[in-house]
Hints:
By secondary structure, the protein is an alpha+beta fold. The protein has helices spanning about 25-30, 45-50, 95, 120-125, 140, 145-150; strands at about 1-5, 60-65, 70-75, 80, 85, 155-160, 170. The strands form two sheets. Strands 1, 2, 3, 6 and 7 form a five-stranded mixed β-sheet that branches. Strands 4-5 form a two-stranded antiparallel ribbon.
Amino acid sequence: MRRQGLGGEQKIPFRSGRAPITQERAALSQADLPIHGDIQKLTEDEWESLCRHCGFCCLYRVMFEDAAEIYLTRVICPCYDLSAGRCSVYAMRFDVNPECTKITPENLAGLRWLPAHCGYRLASEKKSLAGSPPPLSRKRQKNARKEIERLLGGRVVVYDEEMDLCDYIVGRC
C-alpha cells in the first residue's frame, strides 16, 4: 500500500487549502471564466479563484500496489485548519510540506478522484460554477470540520505518521 498523491504517481498527502478569499478573488469566482475560454489561458489568480475551499483535496488517499484504484480516507493534512476551513500555511505550503502538490490545468486530467463539486473539475468539464453551489458556503467554512464530516459521513482526523490509513478508508474515488 502507498499513499496516493495529486499527480497520480507521488506518495503524498494532497494539497492543502487555498489563499484567503479577497473581494477580487470572490468576483473572479463568480465570473464563470472557464465556460467562456480555455482553462489553460487563465491567469494564476483566475485559476486560484476556482477553488471552492471544500478541503477534499486535503484528505489523504490510499492506492494499493496491486490495483489502480484510489480510496478516499477521512484523514486530513495536518496543515489544514479545520476551524478556518483552509490551509494554515498556504503561502509556504510547499516549504512546510514538500509532499503537497498544486492542482494545475496541466495535471488536472489525471486527477479523476476530484469530487464532482470541485471548481477545478467543473471548469475542466466546461460546466458552470454559478449553477453548482459549493459544498461549504462561507458560513459553513467557519466550521469546516463539521461540514467535511457531514459530507464524508464520519469523523475527520488529522494525519499522524503512526496511523494506518487503511483504518480510515471511507470509499473508492
